[in-house]
Amino acid sequence: MSTINYDLNKIKALAFDVDGVLSANVIPMSTEGEPLRTVNIKDGYALHLAARHEIPLAIITGGRTEAVRKRFLALGILPENIYMGSSVKIRDYRDFRDRYGLRDEEILYVGDDIPDIEVMRTCGLPCCPRDAAPEVKSVARYISHKEGGYGCGRDIVEQFLKVKGLWMADERAFGW
């Protein structure tokens, strides 16, 4: 298992793409043509714990399905921080950053494909799953040992929370 080589104490907010990061990069389609996504329960737990500790979290995705919004709302991510149908992700990244008064070096972003590169080049700590596109890996400062949708989110959030002293720190760790 690798560790993030960055001063995680500088990080104040976390932002994530969905497809290929928090869900597997293969998406089955329903008979109605709706994309169906997988979710990783351990990724969800880590995001929920970060939300319970009031860490600013953002979802920036090109996807538009209501199921994705419901998933992240249920984990405690604020509705205004769930950017659906994000065609130019840097715009939504900047909105999130500016709303919280953050500097780029205080934000960790996890992406896996070409539309994420502009944000990854801007944020302080660009991360990606093990199965990210080669172009993304070339700009990432941390490449998780886990694939997207298979624990990449948990790997990154857990390392962040441990450095902050928030992993299993109190009763919030033991409930939903």
Automatic annotation (TrEMBL):
Cofactor requirements of the protein: Mg(2+)
EC nos: 3.1.3.45
Protein's name in the database: Putative 3-deoxy-D-manno-octulosonate 8-phosphate phosphatase, KdsC-like
Entry keywords, A to Z: Hydrolase, Magnesium, Metal-binding
List of residues binding Mg(2+): 17, 112
Enzyme class at the top of the EC tree: hydrolase
GO molecular function annotation: 3-deoxy-manno-octulosonate-8-phosphatase activity; metal ion binding; N-acylneuraminate cytidylyltransferase activity
NCBIfam families linked: KdsC-phosphatas (TIGR01670)
InterPro entries according to UniProt: CMP-NeuNAc_synthase, HAD-like_sf, HAD_sf, KdsC_fam
Binding residue positions for substrate: 19
Record family assignment: Belongs to the KdsC family.
Record note on quaternary structure: Homotetramer.
Superkingdom classification of source: Bacteria
PANTHER family listed in its UniProt record: HAD SUPERFAMILY MEMBERS CMAS AND KDSC, N-ACYLNEURAMINATE CYTIDYLYLTRANSFERASE
